[in-house]
Design goal:
InterPro entries: Glyas_Bleomycin-R_OHBP_Dase, Glyoxalase_6, VOC_core. By secondary structure, this protein is of the alpha+beta class. It contains four helices and 16 strands.
């Protein structure tokens, strides 16, 4: 048994507002979700949800994980940027250079996202939701490949990427130098496993290098776990 990537979760001061932004940008559908007050179901070949969890802590540093969307033409890129701004996004500067061809934006709470230019070969076989770009070591890419049972679709030097066998966006790790960790990341993964498999799966993940962050499950039965880089994720028990 391997865990299933259930959602990319986002901490939010206003979960419903962020859900409206991302739903409007991606064209995804709001859905009732026992694990969050606001959640979006994909309408494309993405195999996981977007889930928005309430927090009282405002964003203060650049995220170590962000979404990248693709463009079919320069006009398509312009329309995506305009749509994001209409929905409450804004331009941000993270040190990008004009010749790189992508536009860096932030959602209404400051979470970074990239609108890539047309002709991007890295995501040529992906849809509009191109990838989740993460800060992380080579080891963490290998960890997630084995944890999810997803193949490594990129493994060059320190850079890795995985992708579901059924398609959807890639999840990529850029290798060092890594951004400093300032505590719990605002964007995290939720993975899920049937209740009957939970103990065995926790043990398997620990065998791959994960560690439990608490002595027991949270009130909803989920476990807080860290991957081999120490990045937190949540194991949901179905």
């Amino acid at each position: 048994m391997t865990v299933r990537l259930d959602a990319l979760t986002v901490d939010a001061l206003d979960p419903h507002r962020l859900a409206r932004f991302w739903g409007g940008l991606l064209g995804w559908t709001p859905v009732a979700d026992p694990h969050a007050p606001a959640s979006l179901e994909p309408t494309d070949d993405t195999t996981f949800r977007l889930r928005f969890l309430p927090t009282d802590a405002p964003k203060t540093t650049q995220n170590r994980m962000h979404v990248e969307v693709t463009s079919e033409t320069p006009g398509h890129q312009d329309r995506t940027v305009a749509r994001a701004l209409e929905l409450g996004g804004r331009h941000v500067d993270v040190g990008q250079r004009p010749e790189e061809g992508h536009v860096v934006l932030a959602d209404p709470e400051g979470n970074e996202l990239c609108v890539l230019g047309a002709g991007n070969t890295w995501l040529a076989d992906c849809g509009f939701f191109g990838d989740v770009a993460c800060d992380g070591t080579h080891a963490v890419g290998v960890f997630w490949s084995e944890a999810l049972g997803w193949p490594l679709v990129w493994d060059e030097g320190e850079e890795t990427a995985v992708r579901s066998p059924s398609g959807g966006p890639k999840i990529a790790w850029g290798g060092p130098p890594l951004m400093p960790s300032t505590g719990r990341d605002r964007l995290r993964f939720d993975v899920a496993v049937p209740a009957a498999e939970a103990d065995a799966e926790l043990a398997r993940l620990e065998g791959l290098g994960a560690r439990r962050l608490t002595d027991g499950p949270d009130a909803d039965g989920s476990w807080r776990v860290a991957d081999v880089d120490g990045t937190e994720f949540r194991l949901l028990v179905d």
